[in-house]
Write a structure and sequence with these properties.
The chain is an alpha/beta fold. The chain has helices spanning about 1-5, 25-30, 50-60, 85-90, 115-125, 135-145, 150-170, 190-200, 225-235, and strands spanning about 35-40, 65-70, 95-100, 110-115, 180-185, 215-220, 250-255, 260. It has 2 domains: about 1-145, Type I PLP-dependent aspartate aminotransferase-like (Major domain) (Aspartate Aminotransferase, domain 2, 3-Layer(aba) Sandwich); about 150-260, Aspartate Aminotransferase, domain 1 (Alpha-Beta Complex).
């Protein structure tokens, strides 16, 4: 959205479906003249999928000359079908990938766009003329040489995620089932209160989305980290107090899309 605002493009937002996938029909109805349709699958922050057939439907029904941008930053965590075959079929689609998620390169940004040459040429006007850092290229290249890395990390994340979901279900807590390394958790009260209370227990969660004030995003960490999360969340939700270190959370860091992190 930030790039769209900078370029002066009109931004039209639509709600997700009841299963938290992109509502293709609503997107087409809301902006029948759109120059670009954005689909994030798995979606951030819900971790939910938009089916390949829905993306095909969008491509078939969109205005001539418009582009479908499919963000697959989290695709490796899921069993979802990639849209890369649509690129190979010369469709009006751009697929985005990154090394900052399952490859663990969050601090050394490295990503790529996959599309027809003519579509990639259009991106050059918005690329900022920034060369890829050598360290990022070296790290990405090394990651690709580990043929089992993605499968191993996907399996580990899925196992820990499912254990966490099972625990939440047994305790009666609501969440959005995810196929990613994060999920949305219903806090039943303003999520800021839970984020701050968890921080006093040295467990940091987040973020907050303005349209979902009683939900917070939980990142799936290691098994010990998720057990620490469960212990702290259970205590906070049951109203327990702590005599431990309580950092000041008066200041918060707000991002352009409305997300919020506590500042300690």
């Amino acid at each position: 959205m930030k790039a769209a605002k900078i370029s002066g493009a009109r931004i039209v937002k639509t709600t997700l479906t009841k299963t938290y996938s992109h509502d293709i029909k609503a997107m087409l109805a809301a902006a029948p003249d759109a120059g670009l349709f954005y689909v994030c699958t798995p979606n951030n922050p819900t971790g939910t999928m938009t089916s390949h057939s829905d993306i095909e439907q969008l491509l078939a029904a969109k205005p001539k000359g418009s582009v479908v941008l499919v963000d697959e930053a989290y695709i490796h965590f899921s069993d979802g079908v990639s849209a890369l075959d649509l690129v190979k079929a010369d469709q009006d689609v751009i697929v985005l990938r990154t090394f900052s998620k399952i490859y663990g390169m969050a601090g050394i940004r490295c990503g790529l766009a996959i599309a027809r040459p003519d579509l990639l040429a259009k991106l050059e006007n918005f690329g900022g003329w920034s060369a890829m850092p050598i360290t990022a290229v070296a790290a990405a290249t090394a990651s690709l040489k580990h043929e089992h890395l993605v499968a191993e990390r996907k399996q580990l994340n899925a196992a820990i995620r499912q254990k966490t979901f099972d625990w939440l279900s047994r305790q009666g807590y609501s969440y959005v089932p995810s196929e990613s390394n994060c999920f949305m958790l219903d806090t039943k009260r303003p999520a800021k209160e839970i984020i701050d209370a968890m921080a006093t227990r040295n467990v940091y969660i987040g973020r907050i989305w303005p349209v979902w004030p009683t939900y917070t995003r939980i990142t799936v960490g290691t098994q010990p980290e998720m057990e620490a999360f469960q212990e702290a969340f259970q205590a906070v939700m049951k109203g327990s107090t702590t005599t431990g270190y309580a950092p000041s959370l008066k200041r918060r860091r707000w991002y352009a899309d409305g997300q919020s992190w506590p500042t300690v």
